[in-house]
């Protein structure tokens, strides 16, 4: 399989110390949170398999050499969200705080869980994308993996580039910042 990455100093970062959000532990069980960084492009093979970028596999790897993921169609974008199994399981706690019979809970649970599929990488680090997931993201042959911090997403290449450009423009135009961050020039 042909693969290439947009140059990046690090593809994932393990951050130690302190408690994890919602009690999350990384997939390797080290107690460190994993951050998926960078953008990588790979090709789908004729069987619908694609190789997960090596750095992402390293961050996900279990003791048996495979990586457990939950794939789901994003309810916000034409892409596939790839969640480490432990992070996806952690979604249950906030969802459980919603009124069980509310429309909000019903819609959210349906959009999160109904089309989600657990997968594991094979020994070569590949995953199989279902026809439904490929159709949702408009995938034909090339796919782009985008690191999104605690998850990564899988896109059609042109859609991925458009999304990155839109996100940068919105962040710049709206002066997005992190809570508690000091704006540049005010230090």
Gist of the model:
By secondary structure, the protein is an alpha+beta fold. The chain is 28% helix and 25% strand.
Overview of the molecule:
- The protein is of the alpha+beta class and 187 residues long.
- It is built from six helices and eleven strands.
- The strands form three sheets. Strands 1-4-10-11-7-6-8 form a seven-stranded antiparallel sheet. Strands 2-3 form a two-stranded antiparallel sheet. It has a two-stranded antiparallel ribbon with strand order 5-9.
- β6 (68-73) and β7 (80-84) form a beta hairpin.
- It is globular and about 45 Å long.
Outline the secondary-structure elements.
Blueprint: E1 3-5, E2 12-15, E3 33-36, E4 39-43, E5 49-51, H1 54-60, E6 68-73, E7 80-84, H2 85-89, H3 92-96, H4 103-113, E8 117-120, E9 126-128, H5 131-137, E10 142-147, E11 152-155, H6 157-173
Antiparallel strand pairs: 1-4, 2-3, 4-10, 5-9, 6-7, 6-8, 7-11, 10-11
